[in-house]
Amino acid sequence: MRFSASLIAMILAPACLAADFAVSVGAANSFAFSPTQIFPAPGDTVTFTFLSRNHSATTTTFDTPCPPPDGGTADGFDTGFLSATTGQTPSATVTIVDTAPHFVACAQAAGAHCRMGMVMAINPTAEQPFAQFLANAVA
C-alpha cells in the first residue's frame, strides 16, 4: 500500500506544483494587460481576468502584432472577446505547454487596442524582448 501511495504522489506532483499567473485585462478602464510580461513554466496556467470594456487575449506574432490573427497563432490561444461592461469580470485560463515566447494582444477594433499598446509577453527572450514587441505594436 505504501508503494501505491508514493506512486500516486509522484504522478500528481506536477499538477500540484503548477503555478497560476494572474493577468488583469483593462484594469481601471485602461487599454493594458498587467503585468506586461510573465515567465511561466510548462504546466503553469495563466488566468486573464477582464475588468473593463470588451477585450480579448489573443496570441500574435512578434514582428507584426497588430491586428492579431483570427483565432491566435497556430501554437497559441484566443480567449475570444469577453465583456466586462455589465459589472461582471469574466476570466479565461490557458495552460502553458512550453517555454517558447508567446506574444499576446487585444484583437478588439481590428487591432486598434493592440496599436494603443494593449499587449503582453509570455516568456520573452533577449532576442525577442517585451520592449521591442511593444514598439512593434505601436509603430
TrEMBL record:
<keyword id="KW-0732">Signal</keyword>
<feature type="signal peptide">
    <location>
        <begin position="1"/>
        <end position="18"/>
    </location>
</feature>
<protein>
    <submittedName>
        <fullName>Uncharacterized protein</fullName>
    </submittedName>
</protein>
<dbReference type="InterPro" id="IPR052953">
    <property type="entry name" value="Ser-rich/MCO-related"/>
</dbReference>
<dbReference type="InterPro" id="IPR008972">
    <property type="entry name" value="Cupredoxin"/>
</dbReference>
